[in-house]
Amino acid sequence: MGKRVAVVLAGCGVYDGSEIHESSAVLVHLSREGAQAEVYAPDVAQMHVVDHMKGQPTTEKRNVLVESARIARGNIKDLAKLDVKELDALIIPGGFGVAKNLSTWATQGKNCTISKEVEDVLRAFHAAQKPIGLCCISPVLAAKIFPGCELTVGHDTECEKWPYAKTAETMRELGCKHVNKHVTEIHVDTKNKLVTTSAFMCNAPIHEIYDGIGKMVKEVVRLA
Q1: Which of 12, 112, 135, 136 is catalytic?
Q2: Which of 48, 80, 100, 126 is deepest in the core (most CB within 10 A)?
Q3: Where do the DSSP E strands lie in 126-216?
Q4: Tens of pLDDT along 180-209?
Q5: Which domain holds residue 98?
Q6: Is the confidence at residue 1, as pLDDT, over 90?
Q7: 136 is a catalytic site residue
């Protein structure tokens, strides 16, 4: 029997939900590792809806669970129904939805709050010593909840390749140890069973992002 891995989504689309390529990469690599992905999302309204052609918010209203179902091909459950006892690991892909719909990081940075459902799930996996995989912006969730943990969101010096590098400094201000890693690399916090990779925090070719996520998934399944 393959490992059962919860994949928590935050909508559909990089600017207001889960990053679609990252989410797909997680699901593909879980399949390759012989693991069974179980997809969840909170049944809540999105912070806002962004026109992905213009990069501008619209007046539309959308639901995180309903939008996430697009990526999951309809095979998705309400996050409120997640039972950590039935699962072996947790993975949360990136995308601005993590910072807008799963937390308030987008508007409040290190002073953000994390959705109670999401925080409860992260704490439950951590308490059960079950591995947690986080990529792109989603390591900020662990930074907020688990002081002193070790994480990567890539590099900590801003440049064309690393446009979001200031995130690393903010995570350090929360008491975390940030470890610089290339997009194809992962960092493993063995004490907290956290596996992180930068993904689209790096302005890199998509196959390198895919490969980095593959290493993260492989390590999460191994630790499970």
Answers
A1: 136
A2: 100
A3: 132-135, 150-151, 177-178, 187-189, 194-197
A4: 999 999 999 999 999 999 999 999 999 999
A5: 4-223
A6: no
A7: yes
